[in-house]
Specification:
mainly alpha; 42 helices; 0% strand; globular
Length: 856
């Protein structure tokens, strides 16, 4: 490509960046192989400017890399592998040669490119010699080449599945550890230490061998004493990873590690090093907490569980008397000008203390409380008062309620008093600690609720960082009673304070400085939770908020936006406002009818926003209106169906599709039989979404449930779609997942529940129009699915309920025609499980299904 060098340089110039990027995109689309070859040539050309070479390598690497999308990454890999092998070989040769370039920027870019190509090709045996070639580089005298090679090995170890590197673990580990030795250049040590961090997992075989592990640990420990803080930080990162991967072997090294981390936390001049030493102890805590949970699970049911492979060494318990004083010492080093939103050493120490409390429970209280008592009222140093409150707030989760109850109750007046401390930092920490108390020990507020609410009301006027934590405290008080939103109770604990607080929170959300410290979002979040938990006696106060929201939403829609940032701020505000509106619609229901027309007029404007978040929020609002108006929603369908259709087809934004599917369910349940007028359109859209390969599979369950909703109300109209829908249900019922992965097990249960919900809707719809026999052709496959589900040891209660519901529907709809199935053992087992369920709804379905089967 002519003028490529200038185009690459123009990317650095804001005035020409967009034009240059467009040129490069067009070149890639016009001739992909030539585009890549030209960039590789630019990267490898020693005569070209440094910036152009670096940019060429970066663009070439990015042409092969999709960071956030595994599906897109697979496409890019296939596109690369489909190139003429000669072209690929030329690019690889130029990229590898650039690892030896004198130009640092080109060299750095080449390390990423070579690694990315390796990650793509080695798994398909297309560049098997790469690792050996890199290891040869490690024997060259040039420090620059060795640095680049270590960097490249680090990227490879980071991104390559370990199975493909395990065969090279010996030479890679040897090269990396050699690079970390004390006699090496500090820059080489840095890249070697980073490479080791990425190699620790796939080198498990080596590190399970005592002699090799001892040597690696010796080298890591030595690196923590490097003169270069970056090397020290990287070495402590390695220790953190070792704690996570090789906990069982840590005992041999803990004496040395304790000394190294203790000294680094207390006195390393580089804060990032101290933070990483603290992270070691945090990781150790997490490992021991996980182990404690595993042992507890095992002890609950020893007959059906295997014991954990590793016993807890109780490192935290043993180190408590040394580490608690050290952590509180760090807490007292807070700087007055410290950015509260930026992670720092003090925050890391507080987090560590919190994990210690979760690990050892009651033991930490006696170690910590003397420090709290001695410093919480310190007359001269705000740092001491702040540290005492932060320490106390950090241990409120872990110790027993009995151990903490008296201490928490006594602390409340002091925390409220501290909201007026002359130090901003102390006020901020006091507000956070009150939030902790309200979340973890709400019962300790008890008779002090009046004082707490009054103090928090006043503190909402404080600076944004304090007011932000006050909003969080109010959020926690509002949700403290799980039965607060029980409509059978006319009032609750919030009611006496609700009118003034909701007004104050709305004022806080509109403060001129509300964009600082996340205050606006926190205020609206507190508003939402208060409304969700509002008792009926304050519904008039809830509805009084609506005119303000309408006014603000109208103003937000009319905002002038001169930049992308302005537009994003506008969308964020609209989303927040729609969020509050939706909560009010949901909580007050039919009482909102008078304002629905005005709100729907605003929603028509909002749906034009090109923001997934805004679209989700307005869809939730529309769904709530549909639930309120029921059949009355029909008049709004012409205005909103195009938007709902577009949302259902927005496969790249699966959360938008999921919200749109929820709205379909709300509309169907509201319109009931009248949904027949739009049923063909809805069924077509839902089936199209199910077939779309670009749509995230997580949305499938909600689509299947929605199809069941439609089928229930349109009966005969659904018949022509039965083959397609039942085929998709059959395919979904055959889904296989990794049963060792809890998230995948949860998804499988959600999917199965949705399949049964779909069957239920179809059966009930056909039965209502006396067309049940149409379903006979599908009974065998449905029953086969039920037998599979009955044998599933990981079956959730919701699946049992839905499955037994289908059994009852089959019996009710088809009667004696399914007699041969209804008295099988698997049916009896499922009904028994449902009847024995602790969930009242599941028990009721079980009893009903049992009655449906009796006559046949």
């Amino acid at each position: 490509m002519e003028h490529l060098t200038q185009v690459l340089l123009n990317v650095f110039n804001p005035a020409t960046r967009e034009q240059s990027e467009q040129f490069l995109k067009s070149a890639e689309q016009a001739n992909y192989p030539m585009f890549l070859l030209s960039l590789a040539g630019e990267l490898a050309n020693n005569e070209k400017p440094s910036q152009a070479r670096g940019m060429a390598g970066l663009i070439l690497k990015n042409a092969l890399y999709a960071k956030e999308s595994p599906e897109r990454q697979l496409q890019l890999n296939q596109q690369w592998l489909a190139l003429d092998p000669t072209v690929r070989t030329q690019i690889k040769q130029m990229a590898f040669a650039t690892l030896s370039a004198a130009d640092a920027e080109a060299r750095n870019s080449a390390t990423q490119l070579v690694a990315r190509i390796g990650v793509c090709e080695i798994p398909v045996n297309q560049w098997p010699e790469l690792i050996n070639e890199l290891l040869k580089n490690m024997k060259l005298p040039s420090e620059q080449v060795r640095m680049a090679t270590l960097q490249c090995l680090g990227y490879l170890c980071q991104d390559m599945p370990g199975t493909y590197l395990a065969a090279f673990s010996n030479p890679i580990l040897q090269a990396v550890v050699t690079g970390m030795a004390k006699d090496q250049n500090e820059q080489i040590r840095l890249y070697a230490t980073r490479a080791l961090f990425n190699a620790l997992e796939f080198a498990r075989r080596n590190l399970e061998t005592d002699s090799e592990r001892n040597y690696v640990m010796k080298i890591i420990c030595e690196a923590t004493q490097s003169a270069d803080p970056k090397v020290r930080q990287a070495a402590f990162e390695c220790l953190v990873k070792v704690a996570g991967l090789y906990y069982r072997h840590l005992g041999e090294y803990m004496e040395a590690i304790f000394s190294l981390t203790f000294n680094a936390i207390r006195s390393d001049p580089a804060e990032e090093v101290s933070q990483m030493a603290l992270e070691f102890w945090a990781t150790l805590c997490e490992e021991e907490i996980d182990l404690a949970n595993e042992w507890a699970e095992y002890n609950e049911d020893r007959e059906n569980n295997d014991p954990p492979a590793v016993p807890s060494a109780q490192f935290i318990e043993k180190a408590l008397k040394f580490m608690v004083p050290l952590l509180t010492e760090v807490l007292m080093t807070k700087d007055e000008n410290q950015d509260p939103d930026e992670w720092n050493k003090v925050m890391a120490a507080g987090h560590c203390l919190s994990l210690f409390a979760q690990n050892v429970g009651d033991s930490i209280v006696d170690h910590l409380m003397p420090f709290v008592r001695d410093n919480i009222n310190h007359p001269t140093r705000w740092q001491n008062r702040d540290a005492a409150m932060l320490a106390f707030g950090s241990i409120l989760e872990g110790p027993s309620k009995e151990k903490l109850a008296g201490l928490v109750e006594m602390s409340v007046p002091r925390m409220l008093e501290a909201l007026k401390d002359p130090s901003l930092q102390v006020k901020d920490t006091a507000a956070w600690t009150i939030g902790q108390i309200c979340e973890l020990h709400p019962e300790s507020i008890g008779t002090k609720l009046f004082e707490v609410m009054g103090a928090l009301y006043e503190a909402l006027s404080d600076v944004p960082r304090v007011a932000n934590n006050v909003c969080w405290a109010l959020h926690n008080i509002a949700k403290a009673d799980p039965n607060a939103a029980d409509d059978s109770k006319p009032t609750n604990h919030l009611s006496p304070y609700f009118p003034k607080l909701i007004q104050k929170l709305m004022e806080t959300s509109a403060r001129e400085d509300a964009d600082e410290n996340n205050l606006r979002m926190s205020a609206y979040s507190a508003v939402n939770v208060m409304i969700q938990n509002a008792a009926p006696d304050v519904f008039p106060d809830v509805l009084a908020v609506v005119p303000t929201l309408i006014q603000r939403l109208t103003a937000a829609l009319g905002m002038t936006c001169n930049s992308t940032e302005d537009r994003e701020e506008q969308y964020d505000l609209i989303a927040l406002l729609c969020g509050v509106v939706q909560v009010i619609l949901q909580r007050c229901g039919g009482l909102c009818r008078p304002v629905v027309p005005q709100l729907m007029g605003l929603f028509v404007q909002v749906i034009n926003a090109h923001s997934a978040t805004v679209q989700e929020e307005v869809l939730l609002c529309i769904g709530s209106v549909a639930s309120i108006l029921e059949a009355g929603f029909e008049e709004f369908l012409p205005h909103f169906m195009p938007f709902i259709q577009a949302s259902l087809q927005n496969y790249q934004a699966h959360s938008v599709v999921e919200c749109a599917v929820g709205v379909v369910g709300d509309i169907v349940r509201g319109l009931e039989k009248r949904v027949v007028n739009i049923s063909e359109q809805l069924i077509g859209l839902l089936l199209e979404a199910l077939r779309a390969p670009a749509l995230n599979p997580k949305v499938k369950p909600s689509i299947l449930s929605a199809l069941g909703d439609v089928a229930m109300y349109v009966g005969q109209v659904f018949v022509r779609h039965l083959p397609a829908v039942m085929g998709m249900c059959r395919d979904a019922s055959q889904t296989q997942v990794d049963l060792s992965n809890p998230d995948q097990v949860a998804y499988l249960n959600e999917l199965r529940e949705a399949i049964f919900d779909c069957y239920t809707g179809i059966l009930q719809g056909l039965r209502s129009e006396h067309q049940g026999d149409i379903f006979l052709q599908y009974v065998e496959s449905v029953v086969a699915f039920i037998t599979i589900v009955e044998q599933d040891e990981d079956r959730y209660d919701g699946v049992t309920r839905s499955c037994v519901g289908v059994i009852g529907d089959l019996a009710s709809t088809l009667g004696s025609k399914v007699r041969s199935y209804m008295h099988k053992d698997f049916v009896k087992h499922l009904i028994r499980d449902a009847i024995n369920s602790p969930d009242a709804a599941t028990k009721q379905i079980g009893e009903w299904a049992k009655e449906m089967i009796k006559p046949i």
